[in-house]
Write a structure and sequence with these properties.
Length: 457
């Protein structure tokens, strides 16, 4: 693909979305739609990818894709033909062929585009387009063929005078072009009644000129579904969601009820893990083997080791090593790190904290900006008071400590190894190792009568 370039159309206004967000940035299975064609072209090995944007879409799309692509601005909405001409002006002379896609068709598969490229080269076509035969798609252009079966033209949906719901071969909006032919022929494309220049006009024009115009039928017709409004966004999401779940099940994952399970496109799940109903796995979450997640769990951008269990809880930016169980009704916020064998019970919130191996926090606690040593028991109602109204402060708890119920740990504070706090204590000063702190404010006893004999896992 050394002499190929990819062009993605992203300058449309997308008015039917009725949104302040540009249409290409609406999400399908957790990713902005425009990421799908970009990643597809990257997977095909294209080093040069151009995204055609409008003045209105340029900044938000650049913020999303950053410098992974090259940007071309179409100053006025003069149609896809004008957008392609702008892209051609930005290409170096050594580019011989182009792949052109829309930014609102996230179901297009790399296999289809790869086949399109191969057909385009093998047949020496001036233009090759991806189509879907016998489709009921009233808002897509219809491919016309002559008596010999050759492509003779393309009629836009708005210009079709027949029955819009009659099955037809429709245009998927994915093209390969010979660069020189496209560059030489675009000036001959006439403006439509709206004043726009349509790329699809090249089909009929090419047929009239006698050049080779190819059409490759998709092997999976639903991949051509695009997004023009919120209803179609939902339909495309449903198709992709099933594709994601089907792929994971093929890799050994059990999804008990796919109809009420929501898994984003970039989620990774290991073999023999079970996903229970009403669970959402979002972003770039990674789940190991032999886990059980759900029901009613939401996991965002988190990493979960082998053999973990997460019941009816929410995880955001959290990390769980192997053999951790969480929930029900707990919340792990960004920066929560749970080592092997940790148990988090019901109504526990953890934020920016590391819990050592075998730590137990069974009930109704908040652990923020804390470091908790191996084998420590956190009693019900424990709170690390980490915010003084201006700054956050750390709490450090040593290994095999015992934090009594309803303990308030007023940070910054340290509880030493093997130390303990009595129920209801308000700890404002450090507690040395193997001693007991009780009372409000907590006072230090000479020895710790409480013993945490639970060995670390």
């Amino acid at each position: 693909m050394e002499h190929w370039a990819g062009v993605i159309m992203a300058a449309g206004e997308g008015r039917r979305m009725v949104s302040k967000t540009p249409k290409p940035l609406h999400r399908v299975c957790g990713k902005e739609m425009i990421r799908y064609p970009v990643e597809l072209l990257q997977a095909l090995g294209l080093r040069r990818i151009l995204v055609v944007v409008s003045p209105a879409t340029a900044a938000p799309i650049r913020e999303t894709l950053e410098e992974s692509v090259q940007y071309v601005v179409q100053p006025e909405p003069n149609g896809t033909g004008d957008a392609a001409a702008r892209a051609l002006e930005a290409l170096p002379e050594d580019i011989a062929n182009l792949v052109l896609l829309g930014s609102d068709s996230p179901l297009i598969r790399s296999e289809s585009v790869s086949r399109l490229v191969e057909t385009h080269l093998a047949d020496s076509n001036a233009m090759t387009m991806l189509t879907a035969p016998d489709m009921l798609c009233p808002d897509l252009g219809r491919v016309l063929r002559d008596e010999t079966g050759k492509v003779s033209g393309l009629v836009e949906a708005a210009e079709w005078e027949g029955d819009p719901f009659e099955p037809a071969e429709v245009n998927a909006g994915v093209y390969c072009f010979a660069r020189n032919w496209l560059q030489n022929t675009l000036p001959a494309v006439e403006n439509s009644p709206s004043g726009e220049k349509y790329l699809t006009s090249l089909v009929g024009l090419g047929a009239q000129l006698g050049v080779r115009i190819g059409a490759l039928a998709s092997e999976l017709p639903e991949e051509i579904f695009g997004v023009n409004d919120r209803a179609q966004l939902s339909q495309v999401e449903a198709v992709m969601r099933w594709q994601v779940i089907e792929r994971l099940m093929g890799q050994g994952v059990t999804v008990q009820d796919p109809g009420v399970t929501y898994i984003d496109a970039d989620v990774t799940i290991g073999m023999d893990t079970v996903i229970l109903p009403n669970t959402s796995l979002r972003g770039r979450t990674v789940i190991g083997e032999g886990c059980e997640v759900g029901p009613n769990s939401v996991i965002q951008d988190s990493r979960i080791g082998d053999g973990c269990r997460v019941i009816a809880s929410m995880l955001e930016g959290a990390t769980l090593e192997a053999g951790v169980d969480v929930g029900p009704f707990s919340h792990l916020r960004p920066g929560a790190y749970l080592e092997t064998g940790v148990h988090i019970g019901n109504y526990v919130e953890v934020k920016e904290s590391r819990l050592g191996r075998g730590v137990l926090a069974g009930h109704f606690s908040y652990l923020g900006d804390a470091s908790i040593g191996t084998g420590t028991n956190i009693g019900a109602g424990t709170i690390t008071c980490n915010f003084d109204g201006t700054d956050k402060h750390p709490t450090k708890i040593g290994a095999n400590a015992f934090i009594g119920c309803d303990t308030m740990l007023v940070a910054p504070v340290t509880v030493g190894e093997g130390a303990a706090t009595g129920a209801g204590s308000v700890v404002t000063k450090d507690v040395p190792g193997h001693l007991l702190a009780v009372g409000v404010p907590a006072r230090i006893r000479n020895k710790n009568p409480l013993k945490n004999t639970k060995p670390p896992n």
